[in-house]
Amino acid sequence: MALVELTAALAALRAALLDGTFVRATASGRRRGASAPPDAPERLEVRPVLLRGVRHAQVTERTGPVVRTRNLRVEDPADVAGLDALLALPFTSWHAETAAGALQVQVTKKGLATLGRAAATGPAPAEQLANDRRKQHLLDPDDPLFAVLGAGGDKRRQVDAFLRQLSAALPADLAADRPLRVVDLGCGNAYLTLAAQRWLAGRPAGARTVGVELRADLVRRSTERAAAAGVDGLVFTAGTIADADPPHLLGGPPDVVLALHACDTATDDALARAVAWGAPVVLAAPCCHRDVQRQLVAAGAGTPSSSLAPAQDALVASPILRERFADVLTDSLRAAALRARGYRVDVVEFVDSRHTPRNALLRAVRPDRPERAAAREAAQRELEELAASWSVRPAIADRLAP
Questions:
Q1: Which residues, other chains included, contact 8 with Cβ-Cβ below 8 Å and sequence gap of 6+?
Q2: Does domain 144-399 have CATH number 3.40.50.300?
Q3: What is the pLDDT of residues 87-109, one digit of tens each?
Q4: What residues contact residue 395 under an 8 Å CB cut-off, 6+ apart?
Q5: CB-side exposure of 332: number of CA atoms within 13 Å?
Q6: Is 308 within 8 Å of 383 (Cβ atoms)?
Q7: Rounded CA separation 370/225 (Å)
Q8: Contact 272/369 with Cβ under 8 angstroms?
Q9: pTM of whole model > 0.85?
Q10: Contact assessment for residue 26 and residue 45, using Cβ atoms and an 8 Å cutoff
Q11: What are phi and psi for residue 273, nearest 5 degrees?
Q12: Contact in structure between 213 and 187 (CB atoms under 8 Å)
């Protein structure tokens, strides 16, 4: 990394964005003391697209849950001025990739910039620009990993959908100068653990991942699969989520915590560990929401002795509706609990429901600037009032209790 004038670093970024082999760019973080327009995004993503045969830069601006997308023609002077305006925003970090390699810019407190370059890791530009002809894949469908896993089309689509959610959640400046530290709690068969490490290994500084699974036989099988597919930087360990010690194996607390289809309150265990570690990024795909279902039954749902209000009782009297509602209620309580701990939380569709019925994903990111105390307190009140109104005590509340 070299220390340069900010203008020189921005000129290098501009050249990358306008380069014919441009692949992708992200920007995040706000420089302290720097002024920005009221509608300035908190995070920015730029990628090349072909629209009716014309090359554009697709700009995705993110502020909390609000996402705006626009397309700029790179040969139109007015649209190029729009790219210049984006470069002028006071981001602390930029990461850009072209066919020639990756460019990393970090802005210092004194208004200078560190400029680093790395060898190319992304797919060829011709593949990147084929958006109006065929679907892109973050992990090559011909990757030998899929053959080792015996993964068919549905599983490959699930992997691609998950990697896109992971890509959207990762701040550009997260672990820019060291391997990203990732832990997957309750990794099971580890399809997504293996795929995530394969993809993350392509970052300029690489990645290291620990998969935690209770069953020793699955740990052995996943270890063998990783070796057969040549997935480096990944280890599996047998044990419970509560007893797992990934910081010892990773050399520090995790940057990313995954909990993908951990059953019932195992998801709550994983979320609590992530909060305790202060993980900047958490992705959880919950499964088997039985705990709240049991509590609704205990509250007498659908019976004359129900402690719920009549309108509520009508909603959960039917077993199948009660099961579906318990899923929604449980994940709403989890999202509120994470917001109360300073995270920004989106609940998104993980993958189309025809590929898996468990397709909700909690995507939580700890912002660079801490959420205001009033916002955290409001989320805590939401959690408590929602739980009280349905006569339930969510496991996440117990896990995160002081």
A1: 113, 115
A2: no
A3: 889 888 888 888 888 888 888 87
A4: 265, 268, 291
A5: 16
A6: no
A7: 40
A8: no
A9: no
A10: yes
A11: -65, -40
A12: yes
